[in-house]
Design a protein that fits this description.
With 326 residues, the chain is an alpha/beta fold. 37% of the residues lie in helices and 21% in strands.
């Protein structure tokens, strides 16, 4: 059994290396992904080892990067493109939602679009404007796209390879403030399904459901709640579209309470969809309304104020207390 401890950034790098090594049709494209190795060094060393024809530095033109990837995918390649920061994906949004997401349906299933769009996302690194967005709900709302986000090194390693192997376009959100968190990666494991949620902590009083950067916060909240005698289960959803509602339902039927946590604004967020679906599925099991914790319905603030904006331990624990008080 091959077990290695590595950061999420290193796990992504190793996963992309394996994808390039395994399939000659895999290409990596983006601004500074080649010689620099990416601003977060996710593609460090890949151009040196696989050449400029497979790890391609592009102009600063996100729409052009995704549009080129669509053309390459139509010719049989499996492009993995990097959007350097979340806030810069919007110039490419038109290509993603009007072309990438729809081509499969337009062709009545005859055309596959195996494109991965990597997006470092979320706050917590003190970045300037346009560098700390959480736009996952915008993409999850678009039929034809799959949207995922790992929270740990093992998932980063395996989910990236599964995304590259997918015949459907995958929007791969990487939690940038967790890039340097380390964890064990079993590199010869058989991974579970890409869109299956994971129970990362068991509990009996309440369920916390999160994905990406907020899983670590929820685990800390569950630990703190335990000191007060509260047993909190934590789910890592891993996939925002599709969502593994069966695992959430199973947990809620045991605990009777659900709090959904994400960095993105609560208003029209993924938590709203989960709250509605679980209320339908678990109405007679719920002991309290499904609560949501997330960002405010406001533009992402300057870096000095982001700690006030991002959901932290206290806001999650407050929601836990409010739910248990019903």
């Amino acid at each position: 059994m091959a077990m290695e401890k590595m950061s999420i950034a290193k796990a992504l790098n190793e996963s992309l290396r394996k994808a390039l090594d395994t399939d000659p049709k895999v290409l990596i494209m983006g601004e500074d992904v080649g010689k620099l190795g990416g601003v977060f060094r996710i593609t460090d060393g890949l151009q040196k080892d696989f050449g400029e024809d497979r790890v391609i530095d592009t102009p600063l033109a996100e729409s052009g990067i995704v549009g080129t990837a669509i053309g390459l995918a139509l010719r049989g390649y499996r492009p993995v493109v990097e959007i350097q920061f979340d806030g810069f994906v919007f110039p490419a949004y038109d290509q993603i939602v009007t072309q990438l997401a729809k081509m499969h349906a337009r062709a009545l299933g005859k055309i596959k679009l195996p494109v991965v769009v990597r997006i470092p996302y979320g706050g917590g690194i003190g970045a300037v404007e346009h560098h700390s967005e959480s736009p996952e709900a915008l993409f999850a709302h678009v039929a034809g796209l799959k949207v995922v986000s790992p929270s740990n090194a093992s998932d980063a390693y395996w989910m990236m390879q599964q995304a590259v192997q997918s015949d459907d376009p995958v929007i791969f959100f990487e939690p940038k403030r967790r890039y340097w968190d380390k964890g064990e990666v079993q590199t010869d494991a058989i991974p579970g399904p890409l869109h299956k949620a994971s129970v990362v902590r068991t509990g009996s009083d309440l369920t916390l459901a999160a994905y990406g950067p907020m899983v670590k916060v929820c685990l800390a909240a569950a630990e703190a709640a335990q000191e007060e005698g509260k047993s909190v289960e934590v789910l890592d959803l891993r996939s925002v579209s599709p969502i593994d509602f069966d695992t959430i339902q199973s947990s809620v039927e045991r605990t009777g309470r659900l709090v959904v946590v994400h960095e993105a604004p609560v208003f029209y967020g993924s938590g709203a969809e989960i709250a509605a679906r679980i209320t339908e599925r678990c109405f007679y099991h719920l002991e309290a309304p499904v609560l949501r914790v997330g960002g405010y319905h406001a533009p992402y603030p300057p870096a000095r104020l982001e700690d006030e904006y991002l959901p932290g331990l206290d806001r999650v624990l407050d929601a836990v207390d409010r739910s248990l008080a019903y």
